[in-house]
Records
---
Amino acid sequence: MGSVSKRRAIQTARARTCSNSTSFLLTMPGFLDDSNFGALSCKLITVCPNNVHLGKSLPTINANITLFDETTGILKAIISGNEITKWRTAAASVVATKYLTAKKGLRVLAILGAGAQGEIHAVAFQHFFNFEEANSKRLIRIWNHNTLKAEKLVSKLNQLYCGTVFKCFKSNEMCVKEADVIITATFASEPIVQLKWLKKGTHINAVGAGLTHYSELSESIYLASDVYIDYSEGAEAELTGLKELGVEFKGEIGTLVSGGVSPSSVNQITVFQSLGMAVEDCAMARMVYDLYKKQYRNV
Ligand SMILES: NC(=O)C1=CN([C@@H]2O[C@H](COP(=O)(O)OP(=O)(O)OC[C@H]3O[C@@H](n4cnc5c(N)ncnc54)[C@H](OP(=O)(O)O)[C@@H]3O)[C@@H](O)[C@H]2O)C=CC1
Ligand SMILES: O=C(O)C1=NCCCC1
């Protein structure tokens, strides 16, 4: 994120190719200029929300990353990108939350969405933060529009992470009530969070992005919030609806991290509108490639 804001990373606005009314392919080229973490890569990722209805347990998001030699341009590897996409997206939300809640006490975390991103965010946030509701152990709330899916995820997480209690909520409104941090990670095309449900100073990581784009939060939330983004070029290209609404972006998270933008006041509602960055995939692909070489080829 810091490299992006210091312009040591190149990622042109990604291309979006629709294959039908709900599905699309994103082409995400990126170059990160760093001898330890840098790489030249292109992630190809399909987003097919209807896969859930095919009954074959197919992921809705499927990614592969092509990694190239920066000097010769020769293809070095094609790396499966599903796990990378999950982890790097949750990592970006962790960083945004760390910097946007630095002066706030965090008690209540609400996650809306119990799919791949909902799950990885729960895992990452229980690891990095200490959400603790009054008179309770560490607690993370989870809601999904299909409650059964949230119940299954909650039961799985409660078995895996005994230091935290995961609790299923049937109502999205009750789930976000009094929340200090909210994560939205769904394909909702209509808002699932309303401004009047939020308390002062709430921070929201808005992760979901369907074809009708960035629609999980009500317009009034965007208008009332300080909205941060991951990269300006992507935001200009993809968040046209928010721009037309009159939303001014406060800045990139990378700029906030390096002190180039002053943080919002504690009572201000903040939104990190996560688009996803090609260079995050680039850095992860390089790391995976280096580990593979070390472990299996001893180089
Ligand atoms: N910002 C970024 O970098 C990234 C963003 N994403 C976005 O994050 C979102 C989640 O992705 P992922 O977890 O991989 O996908 P999954 O298919 O694994 O999960 C999607 C979740 O959204 C729920 N959902 C589907 N339709 C609706 C609806 N109309 N209203 C409310 N909830 C709904 C699903 O519930 P059910 O299955 O019960 O219908 C499920 O819990 C997507 O929008 C995706 O595009 C993904 C990767 C990176
Ligand atoms: O950056 C990504 O990866 C994605 N962004 C939005 C849609 C799904 C994948």
---
Amino acid sequence: MAQYTRISGSVGLITLKNPPVNALSAVVRQGIVDSVERALGEPEVKCLVICGQSGKFCGGADIREFGKKMTGPPLIPVFHAIEAAAKPVVAAIEGIALGGGLELALGCHYRIAHSKAKLGLPEVTLGLLPAAAGSQRLPRLIGVPAALDLITTGRHVTAAEALQLGIVDQVTDHNTVDAAVKFALSVAGQSLDARRISTFPCPRLSNLDAVFEAAMQKVRQAARGAIAPIACVQAVRAAATLPYAQGLEREKELMATLFTSGQARALQYSFFAQRAVGRWSMPSGARWDTSKPKPIRKAAVIGLGTMGRGITVGLAQAGLSVVAVETQEKQLMEAKQAVSGMLERGAKKRGVSPPLGNISYSSNIKTVGDVDLVIEAVFEDMALKKEVFQQLSAVCRPGTFLCTNTSGLDIDDLASQTPNPELVVGMHFFAPAHVMKLLEVVYGPRSSPQAVATAMQLGKVIGKVSVAVGNCQGFVGNRMLSPYLSQANFLLEEGATPEFVDQVLEEFGFAMGAFRMSDLSGLDVGWRVRKAAGLVVPGQPARMRQGCRYSPLGDLLCEQGRFGQKTGSGWYQYDKPGSRVAKPDPWLHSFLEEYRTRHGLVARRIDHQEVLERCLYSLINEGFRILEEGIAAGPEDIDVIYVLGYSWPRHRGGPMFYADMVGLTRVLERLEFYHQAHPDVPSLQPCNLLRKLVASGSPPIHRWREVIKKVHSQL
Ligand SMILES: CC/C=C/CC(=O)SCCNC(=O)CCNC(=O)[C@H](O)C(C)(C)COP(=O)(O)OP(=O)(O)OC[C@H]1O[C@@H](n2cnc3c(N)ncnc32)[C@H](O)[C@@H]1OP(=O)(O)O
């Protein structure tokens, strides 16, 4: 609702009340209309202030209403009514003014913001554009280049930046509503002609075409197939070239296209999925709302390689005390320098001082005796990790949580090295660990709910989106990646090139195709895992392992020392070791031809559809297996992992959402087709849960959990 009160006798105060973020639901919109009408009709009222309850101005349109039948007054006429008011209307912005919230403020005649407030038009991140006249008013207020930046990126700006840009008129460190009331009284009675943004001409640009061409090129490059950023540029162009009313019409047309696109649905699903993963549950019945985390004030990181350094930075930046341990003195010195550099650069960006004093460095593992939680981040080698866990068990005080940063090793095996396996969980960080948003929190069969809750809470404290998953080879992310990569390799055997496979996957929207990604991560990583799994055995038939089809192509490249970017060659060639520019490699092409000849394989023409379907559907099929086994609690967990950790295009929601969009029947049919063609590839065999979902009439993704529950209860 929107509550109307009178303060200081002559000020009408409208307070938006719709927790948690005062979103502009139908009731709130109606409340604003009624309140404005009332205030304008009261002769004693000289001016109006609009604010939000609980220190939050407004988080924008109510996203939960999207896709439902529209009720209540639409936003644009509401904002026009405010702008047309004959009495000054001042927005008192505390906390947030986002999307429709900022558009509401732009409809007001003045804007006063608290110094800690954040403002922005993040609609693009939901697959939309600021279609409550935001795309038309903002360029008129702050000029085209700045408006393009804000609208196409959706970034939030601080109150200080908003003041500099001209979005707000005043910033206060004190009570914002009081400041807004005082301000409103000071301008009451003054002409409002120069305060109605819709009447402003858009500031002229001599190089208008060049500015829009450059903007379009920039968004196309970054968008990876997303259409909203492009529509945002088109809408701002309308503001710059058309009268306001016509610009609004264009904004409306563009919005209609976006609103009905699957991309907006995918991005809105992704928004809620990222919040839903915080409400985790385990097959044992333990849940986020019944498991209390322990507060972590002091943590230790063991092993200061690339991952350990990033984790240390993340913890220190979040204000924790960190003991950073590296047993090799030389590496300890190098790590100290590197971590300090990362902290200094990060602090400079945020305009704060670097939290260097939060970290104490040591070469002695015994110095971790008083910490609340340890994150072991040594080399990905089970024997080494076990040794560290045994040492930790001897030196840590009772009750210390022991976490391992691993991308796939058995958490339970590691937990068995300690007398308190219930305190052990996996924390799978993604490189660079201080930047990447995703954290897989991996519980073993003996991990306590409190250990999981504590790791999830710590993830939140350091700014991660944490997803709780069960313990299995590769957990969720890497386990699903395995059949995807296998298919990519099989396609090479059958006639494709790495360039073609990557092109198809990149056109789909991945930041990098399978082969460019493998070159970046290092081919030796997978080689080591395959060796440990007993798959790289000399003398075995080259293309079969344990009765299943196997491609040794990656192993053969590793045997040649081609580990990817770091060695200057892998699936591609690079100018020098460490270079990032991948070039097609004639050597690799001849190597593939020789390989096919040696194995009697005849190269055939492979099209886009086959590459996409085999790579993606095998990955999706593994996702269904993961759901069936209860390793992930729901499809949202898998989708968040893929969007945040594996560059799955956000505008496609994630692999499980994509399966829902494509249609489960279609996915099942194509898997059956490919499995018939490749009966020796088990990952193409449609899994039970997928069949059950199709048999239950392919319910929409938000109802999959019901079917999953039934499958689990039958086990
Ligand atoms: C005609 C169509 C016009 C569209 C114009 C628009 O306005 S589109 C919407 C534009 N607004 C946004 O994109 C803001 C989205 N929200 C956020 O970025 C963040 O939630 C926040 C406001 C910065 C707050 O972040 P914080 O980390 O503090 O909390 P959460 O993100 O966890 O959110 C708390 C709960 O609030 C729900 N929520 C947030 N925004 C909205 C919204 N606009 N509508 C409805 N609900 C919203 C969010 O889902 C959380 O609830 P859960 O139950 O946990 O999901």
---
Amino acid sequence: MEANAGLVAGSHRRNELVRIRHDSDSGSKPVDVSGQICKICGGVVGLTADGDVFVACNECAYPVCRPCYEYERKEGDQSCPKCKTRHEPIRLLTNGQPVSGEIPFPCATSDYNQSVRTNSGPLGPNGDKHLDPRLPVPVRIVDPSKDLNSYGLGNVDWKERVEGWKLKQDKNMIQVTSRYADGKGDMEGTGSNGEELQMADDDARQPLSRVVPISSSHMTPYRIVIILRLIILVNRETYLDRLALRFDREGEPSQLAPIDVFVSTVDPLKEPPLVTANTVLSILAVDYPVDKVSCYVSDDGSAMLTFESLSETAEFARKWVPFCKKHNIEPRAPEFYFAQKIDYLKDKIQPSFVKERRAMKREYEEYKVRINALVAKAQKMPEEGWTMQDGTPWPGNNSRDHPGMIQVFLGHNGGLDTDGNELPRLVYVSREKRPGFQHHKKAGAMNALIRVSAVLTNGAYLLNVDCDHYFNNSKALKEAMCFMMDPAYGKKTCYVQFPQRFDGIDNHDRYANRNIVFFDINLKGLDGIQGPVYVGTGCCFNRKALYGALLMSQKSLEKRFGQSPVFIAATFMEQGGIPPSTNLATLLKEAIHVISCGYEDKTEWGKEIGWIYGSVTEDILTGFKMHARGWISIYCMPPRPAFKGSAPINLSDRLNQVLRWALGSIEILLSRHCPIWYGYNGKLRLLERLAYINTIVYPLTSIPLLFYCCLPALCLLTGKFIIPELSNLASMWFILLFVSIFTTGILELRWSGVSIEDWWRNEQFWVIGGTSAHLFAVFQGLLKVLAGIDTNFTVTSKASDDDGDFAELYVFKWTTLLIPPTTVLIFNMVGIVAGVSHAINSGYQSWGPLFGKLFFAIWVIAHLYPFLKGLLGRQNRTPTIVIVWSILLASIFSLLWVRIDPFTSDAAKAASQCGVNC
Ligand SMILES: O=c1ccn([C@@H]2O[C@H](COP(=O)(O)OP(=O)(O)O[C@H]3O[C@H](CO)[C@@H](O)[C@H](O)[C@H]3O)[C@@H](O)[C@H]2O)c(=O)[nH]1
Ligand SMILES: [Mn+2]
Ligand SMILES: [Zn+2]
Ligand SMILES: [Zn+2]
């Protein structure tokens, strides 16, 4: 620094323009402003490199921290949030020294000093501030447009500098894109490393994410319309650059926390190995230090196919991962990456990349051929069961009776990638299964993985995905760490949930598979209370939150966690990780022990800790348990969706999925963990509880819904009306109710950004699910409680082939779930026909009331329309719905024809009319 003194001063020169000295060495009482809170993000305003309080606005000294100030200046509305003075654009000086956050607008007003005084201590005799002897030049506030001497700063040197600065500013208009350019400029120009570090230190105190409020013009009317939904709605924004600056600096060992990623799979026929493989590849290629990521694949089907394809995948990852990282591609699941179209003209693509991409694509095709060969081979099990490549029988031949199996691929001692770099560890786990032992479906599998991973790698955080949910955004782990490693959020956050997004859904999303309303309205809204519910996939957990409270004696530790000293020791590792010297073979032995089927006996697994048992929607239950302990959760929606999965797109599969969810809710409703009566210790927020109650009682609404759907038809058939007589007052109330529901809906759509079509699909599917799956769930749930009949977890099939014409949408499978909605549909159609024919027969005056009744019947049919389409299938692409409507209309017209039959005499007509009506 000394050697370059001149340049150091040069860099200080910039600082002087903004520095407001926080004078602790003055005689009178200093005001401590070091802890000043930023009015934008709520973080500490912090100091400049020289230890002064950072001031963003010279006009009003409104407290804003540097990151917020820079954000506002670069991407925000470029003015002071309080006095609206415009911030100067970001420019570079001629000598390459960037002018960034440290120079706000070079202006000052006379009342400025006053506002400064309150902030930063007393001023000197001339109204000038006390000077800090440690500084090379005194501190002052300068308006270059005014005579400098009028500020009592008769310093020629100063004046020159300002003039010079002005000149340079006019000449140079190079935009600085990031604040790191600033730091580097300093390093090259002045070598002032100390200053740079200090700036980095400042950043270390900044939050890693911020809440982005929704504009009040969108929110206020919404809140007014519906008091119950008075929720503090929020958006969030993460700062990956700050995360990197704090924990992952270039050239230093990364300080990011280790994370274990879990993938669950059970049935390789419904969940094709290629789908799982793509998920695994996207995890192995994730943008995170390789030694801090481990991928665990749980195979609940103990399928050799899954094992062998994972082995192939590990091999392919050695080529795939370096390719992804070198070219920084997205997404890093090859199937989806290669399905993307590249615009070679537009996307400034280098020829070398084009070549490598093509070569990689070929490699992937070859890999796919190998996987498909494995799948073909696995179609029919030989009589003696499967045999592994080394000739020994596959231990998992009986998926209900087999030992625990673990295989470690890649990682520290495994193969390197083709560039010679290490790869994340990949572990195959199939927990032990024996007859007579409850295995608790997915929740059981997840708990086994918690223990295996604690023994082998012990990541401080866990992230779990379904086998079909690949990382669509390679920075997803870092996004999660922006909350988990945040000084403010980290300690109280149990998980960060990402929204579920889907591929391969038909354009109109006929069966509301995207669940947009749930993800973009419900979960987003909950983020403003105590956090979103856990939805089972795409969720990053704080490992500690899964362990419950930790302060207890050794004996009770064993009672809680089971008899594994290695596992118990691991629970004490605050930052995760395992002692470096431990021998893998010993650990593997312990890992086999913790996945044995009797391990959880008389422990708290599934009752108090880990994934909670007792419901096929283990996710809701698990999240609820954490919220009831007072943890908060976070909803993170990065602009590029973090995860993407597949959804069942044919009607029957979709209904079965909804049935499972509804059944899971009923199971919770009738269990000890029911949010209506569980957890009154004051830690679960009231509105959060309300939301949980809503997520578990909804299947019950199917009963009134069914009645409501039948009423219009009933009215039409009997000639009676729902409302006895439409008095003016009654219709007023009715219209008011309708309008208020409608307004809430519209306002909700405004803040959530959900489209009308998505909303309408959701409404339709609510009725379809309500009259089928929800109804069945209520009865099955009661059966479970009363007769002890266990529920099973029917996995949805994940399509692997990309035919693209949505053939899957039209697949028709018979299920009893189809009966009630079909009945309701036919009932209403018959009602319409009967009603119209009745009106035809009863003359002019009966048409008025008829329209009222018809409206309700058509309203029901409109809701069930996608269901009807699903029932009718594709049938050679003829819009079959037209046929149905033609039949309907045909019958109406034929009745009409009968009525005005020109051949019947007037007398006969009168007689028949009388006959109908009397
Ligand atoms: O005994 C079992 C049953 C299922 N699974 C896994 O559970 C996941 C979810 O199954 P899926 O058929 O895809 O169900 P979805 O309805 O699509 O899943 C949603 O709903 C489930 C709760 O019903 C959650 O567990 C899921 O995470 C969530 O994505 C899959 O990875 C399965 O392999 C197991 O590991 N073991
Ligand atoms: Mn799924
Ligand atoms: Zn201001
Ligand atoms: Zn701030």
---
Amino acid sequence: MDKFVIRHRKRSAVEEDEWKSEEPIKKCQEDECEVEEEFSQPIPWQKFEAEGLDCDYSLLFDKEEADRLFNQLEEEVVYFTGDKAKIQVYGKSYSVPRKQATYGDEGLMYSFSGVHLQAKPWTPTLEHIRDAVTKATGHTFNFVLINRYKNGHDHIGEHRDDERELDPACPIASVSLGAVRDFIFRHKDARTGSSKRQIEPVKLELAHGSLLLMNYPTNTYWYHSLPVRKKVKTPRINLTFRRIVKNRQKTGIKME
Ligand SMILES: O=C(O)CCC(=O)C(=O)O
Ligand SMILES: [Fe+2]
């Protein structure tokens, strides 16, 4: 078994078309997926793997708690506006197709594509979610990047979170709240160029209250994206908890 897909609901015809327009994938049956229970909390984990890809997926919060956390974040989180909500590509300024915020330990900074985003101090809700992730995984985090997608038009393009200031021993822990969205991994050798290889993408759905761990070396070999899904009418908040090594701090994610 080398590929997984995790689906939580039946798709409409339009959604099926959107999936089919991306490359096909091999599906596995739920019962083929390994369930890991090696972390401190007895929540069931699904492991999915491919060449150079190692991720763990779980439902961290039940619907009631996920709803509550989503609503609290809608009250609490202050997103960047103005120049801080834009990126620079070859000297031109572009608006990011989503809203972003960064929180974390004092003095931490996140930089990409010409913007430098200072971490705001943790809020109580963010501390609560961070601590739940730590309890479930055994890993500690000093920074979170928050992306808010107002509907299915908001998205994030293919990129890797492979910056040298991220501690490779610590997975990137991605918590999703709100609308279910598709999430796609593509191997770097399956993208473009003369050495392009036939490696199937890995597609999954990130559910309300879910936790996805991207373990080393996933972000070395695989790009990921949250594509446009026009049928999605409701918002989603994603929190990627990270561990930044302070004295290595320089840049953040690179958008390509
Ligand atoms: O919204 C997501 O699920 C992904 C966000 C992401 O890739 C990132 O913050 O680097
Ligand atoms: Fe990312």
